[in-house]
Amino acid sequence: MFDLISEIAQTLRNNKLRTALTGFAVAWGIFMLIVLLGMTRGVINSFNDGRMSQGANIISVWGGQTSMPYKGYKEGRSVELKEADLRTLEIENAGNVSAATSILYKTGVISTPKDYISTGYNGVYPSALEDRGLNLVAGRFINGRDLEMKRKVIVLTKKNSEVLFDDSTKVLGGRVICEGLSFNVVGIIDPEFGQDSYIPFTTAMMLDGNSGKVSRIDVNLKNVKTMEDGEEVEKDIRSTLARQHEFNPEDQSGVWVWNRFTQHLTMDTAMSILDMVIWLIGIFTMLSGIVGVSNIMFVSVRERTHEIGIRRAIGARPRNILVQILTESVAITALFGYIGIFFGILVTELLNRLFSESDFLKNPTIDISIAVKVTLVLIVAGCLAGLFPALKALKVKPVEALRDE
After folding, report:
1. 191 SS3 class
2. What is the β-pairing status of strands 216-221 and 181-189?
């Protein structure tokens, strides 16, 4: 082991400038790879947080306006979704639909003796908390009992609660006036976007005069795994609503559909491609360093021709020579590579602190799996850098080497 370290040190001393320049190229390539992987990981984490905050196995549907004539109806007819559509969707698509829920959007004034806000309120089902990625910070959300009893309960956003109440400790259990009726505040949310309040869907429907109209339908999927499955169930949902509201199933404007499942798969693929591209960029950046290490090893082999000949003459096997050259190459690559890793990790930690409050980069640091992959890249790169010099060393004939001074 000490002999090997001594030989590596001698190789570094004999080629100081070339080793320094080559080492910088290797360290820079690894540094860029670590930083790029860290930033990519931050973007992916940010995307996943936003994606996972809302259900992925959901298709959302809004009413639209027809663009084709159908069964005597002219184009341009408005399609309004109904509460009755929920049950129809569940029955006709039982194989792929686990549940269908609806949302009723309304705007109004919510007030207290302190102040008032002009805002929107949504009549929702309990599943909206997870489906819409709402961050509940205090109290509770709408529950099944609220729906059954058509309770006048409301969930406010944190910002709106601060406007309506002087004392934050009195928000839960407090009363607000909405649509002329008194509502009990049962929960506080802190959403990333929007400041809408939430009330039970049945209560919102009552306030709307039990018209049966809904603003949006969310269809929770089951037994879907591939892009084809997602597209097929979307087509089935559109066909079901087309029959219910008498518009052409091929009319894409009849209802507006947001297929979160297929979008989820598409974005997964995009993130995988991005990760692969970053790896390729980092590895190609390392190539200049690898070529430099290989050149150093060629010089080392040429300078040690006499030594290699003596070792071959006294019985050293070709495998021993091969292992020695490859080990030296891996050691040089790893030495400068880990310098690049060290500084790369420092930069990703710095980025993590700088963007800790940002939604663009979330935790842009590398984990142990990436560190292991980079280590494997270093080992492979070192082996490749030393492979051709090692093969050249094996071609040295002992007799010719002993004559070479």
Report:
1. coil
2. unpaired
- How does DSSP classify residue 254? S
Q: Name residue, tokens 């956003």.
A: 157
Rounded distance, CA 150 to CA 153, Å?
A: 9
Question: How far is residue 197's CA from residue 172's CA, in Å, rounded to a whole number?
Answer: 14
118 has which bridge partners?
109
- Both ends of the chain: CA-CA distance in Å? 27
Nearest to 365 by CA among 348, 389, 347: 348
Backbone angles phi, psi at 167, to 5 degrees: -110, 120
- Quick: pLDDT tens for 240-287: 999 999 999 999 999 999 998 998 888 888 888 887 887 787 777 767
Distance, CA of 5 to chain centre? 44
218: left (phi over 0), alpha (psi -120 to 50) or beta: beta
Q: Residue 71 — left, alpha, or beta (φ > 0 → left; ψ -120 to 50 → alpha)?
A: left
Residue 82 DSSP symbol: B
Close Cβ partners of 260 (under 8 Å, ≥ 6 residues apart):
54, 55, 56, 57, 58, 59, 60
Altogether, the residues listed in the chain come to a count of: 405
Q: Which is nearest to 155 in space by CA: 133, 137, 180, 130?
A: 137
Tell me how many degrees the CA angle 204-139-163 measures, rounded to the nearest 5: 75
Cβ neighbourhood burial of 365 (10 Å; 0-12, 13-18, 19+)? middle
Percent of the chain that is helix, strand, coil (3-state, to 5): 55, 20, 25
78-113: per-residue pLDDT in tens? Answer: 999 999 999 999 999 999 999 999 999 998 899 999
The residues with which 39 forms a beta bridge, in sequence order, are: none
Q: Are 175 and 183 spatial neighbours (Cβ–Cβ below 8 Å)?
A: yes
Structure tokens at 321: 């020579």
CB distance 4 to 10 below 8 Å: no
Please tell me the distance from the alpha carbon of residue 123 to that of residue 125, in angstroms, as a whole number: 7
